[in-house]
Amino acid sequence: MRTQLTNYIARLFAGDLSAFGGPATDEAVAGHIRAEQMSLVLGYSVGIMLANACNAAVLAVALRHSPDWAFALGWTVVVAGAAIAFGLQSHLSRRITKPQFVSRRAMHRLVRNAFMLGAAWGIVPVAFFANASTGGQLVITCLCSGMLAGGALAFATIPIAAIAFTTPIFIGIAICLGQDGDPAYVLMAVLVVVYGTVLLRAVFVNSFVFARRVIRQIEADRTVRQDPLTQLPNRVAFNETLDGALKRLALSGEEFAVLLLDLDRFKEVNDRFGHPGGDEFLVQVASRLQRCTRAAEHVARIGGDEFALVMANLVRPEDALGIAERFVAAFTEPFLIEGCEISGETSVGIVLAPRDGNTPLDIMKNADAALYRAKKAGPGTVCFFEEADDKASRDRKALQTDLAGAVARDELFLVFQPFLDLGENRITGFEALLRWQHPSRGLVPPSEFIPIAEETGLIHEIGEWVIRRACATLADWPENIRVAVNFSAAQFHNTGVLQTIVQALADAKVAPHRLEIEITESMLLSKYGSAASILNALLELGATVALDDFGTGFSSLTYLRKLPFSRIKIDQSFIRDMLVQPDCAAIVKSVISLARDLNIDVVAEGVETADQLEYLRQISCDEVQGYLIGRPVSAVGVQALLNSKKLRAIFAA
Ligand code: C2E
Ligand code: MG
Ligand code: MG
């Protein structure tokens, strides 16, 4: 009971409208309503305090012939001085950005100040009315009525403050009128009560309407500024926070940092578990990230798997690094999605303002560039923006523009790298590898331009060119030689790709079984989309499918059951280390034996030494590919390679 009463009183003096039967809210919303109420009052406060000071001066002048003049002058000096000081203080404490939350204590202070000012004015009729001249009495009556009306207007959204301010004045008037038996004063008392009731009633009605409007606005704000999935602020909210930080930077030099994060394996998770699993992953990531930040700072989700944080009032760049490292560490523990443990990772790019930019555009562009470098360095990397990133990002843009016209300008060409069958000791085919002869940069490696082509969608046009050119080249090779063509996952999002392949085979008049499609694991994971159905259609047509870079993705052997692969290509990283690291050798051996049981051939990628070749022979690897057998060569070089002495020597081994 007692705590209920204390709680009620606390709510009452905090301006909480539920104390008067207004809308009930939780503390977060109540704090937001207080912020709005306070900002309205502070908005008027300078004018109101000036009016108070003027009124006090007017009173002193009106009472100059009264016997109470000395007291009135003292009163005026105190009230006018306090009003001017308070007006100045509230002007200086005006925030650059409106706070989103105001504490109960701040509201208590406002109510207390309102009461003190009201009490000062309540003294006036009691102390000065009786001895004042008729003119003086008229002035006091006008001032008190004006104060009542002005106070009600100033505190129109905070009934408790309006009550705290007007009550002492009402009491003062009541005492003053009650001292005299004049019936006119009784009439005046009635009028004051009527006016007071009307004013306070208006204050209540107005404040309830105001609070309901703020609540509706908070709800609308939530939908506009909050990501519905993770409940984190969204891009709109992030942009506003960034704008606020830039304003503070301009006005007070307050430095800040922006941290940009991108999940390294979100796409794989999304593909493997579908959208509900991907959503669950994001929700878990969001809550882990939010726990890493400083109080009152919120990570925002600004894109599918992109998160960002504005760190205001940055004292040292190391503080930003500290938070970034906490973000990275938040991924150490695996995530539990649909009962499976999934390891996620993130990279972080950091920009410092104003050092790295002072416009939203520059800051985000540079954060992107820093993040790009972090991602390139590998998952879990944190990079501060550096001048060179800017150059790298401009370079990338330029490369993008150039790539758009590369097919038309005939700058792309294919090279072919042989597969050697260790059982038959003969070359069974070639992998077509794309090259770009840039007019000024020279030869650009596919690792640089394929990701750009994928991001921009140019991969469809380029991929079509590759398959057509590969099939056309294949037409000139002996019947028992195949060509393997690499496909990006993005190409399979376009169902037209099947038609393109069929058309390329038909135009070149080559049998479909001579074409092998190389795909990576990530493409198989897709529960959705058309990848599986397109690959099945290709298999029905007679083409074969190889699983490229095996061991580098999720490396789950269950994927091998998803499609009837004709080949697995063990990634070159395992081949490179298999003679020095026993675990690599164990993986290579077990993949080969598993593949044999599943009736799938194995190609070892990246064979560079005779020892590696010998070992692969011993463990019955079916085919090998690598610089030892042959580097990628032009179409013209293929025939020469087929007859090469070096290869014969390898066959004979
Ligand atoms: P990939 O399909 O795994 O191709 C093998 C890469 O390893 C090739 O690099 C090849 O030159 C290189 N390589 C072959 N043998 C050795 C070796 O003994 N040692 C070493 N260190 N490397 C070796 P390249 O040509 O730079 O291609 C890189 C990647 O670019 C390819 O990896 C493939 O994923 C992609 N790519 C190439 N051409 C195309 C294309 O036409 N379309 C698509 N979507 N991707 C392509
Ligand atoms: Mg390949
Ligand atoms: Mg490969």
Helices and strands in order:
Blueprint: H1 2-13, H2 27-62, H3 69-92, H4 104-128, H5 134-154, H6 159-178, H7 183-225, H8 235-252, E1 256-263, H9 266-290, E2 300-301, E3 306-311, H10 317-329, E4 335-337, E5 340-342, E6 346-353, H11 360-377, E7 382-384, H12 387-404, E8 412-421, E9 426-438, E10 442-444, H13 446-456, H14 459-474, E11 482-486, H15 496-508, E12 515-520, H16 521-524, H17 531-541, E13 544-550, E14 567-570, H18 572-577, H19 582-597, E15 601-604, H20 610-618, E16 623-624, H21 635-642, H22 645-652
Parallel strand pairs: 6-7, 9-11, 11-12, 12-13, 13-14, 14-15, 15-16
Antiparallel strand pairs: 1-3, 1-6, 2-3, 4-5, 8-9, 8-16, 9-10
| Main sheet summary | 8 strands, mixed, barrel
Q: What is the tally of helical segments?
A: 22
| Global geometry | elongated
Give me the secondary-structure category: alpha/beta
Low-confidence stretches: none
Bound ligands: ligand C2E, magnesium ion
Strand-residue proportion: 5-15%
Specify Rg, calculated over alpha carbons. 39 Å
Number of domains: 3
Distance between the ends: 95 Å
Q: Report helical residue fraction.
A: 55-70%
- Output the strand order for the largest sheet: 8-9-11-12-13-14-15-16
Global mean pLDDT? 88
Q: How many DSSP-defined strands?
A: 16
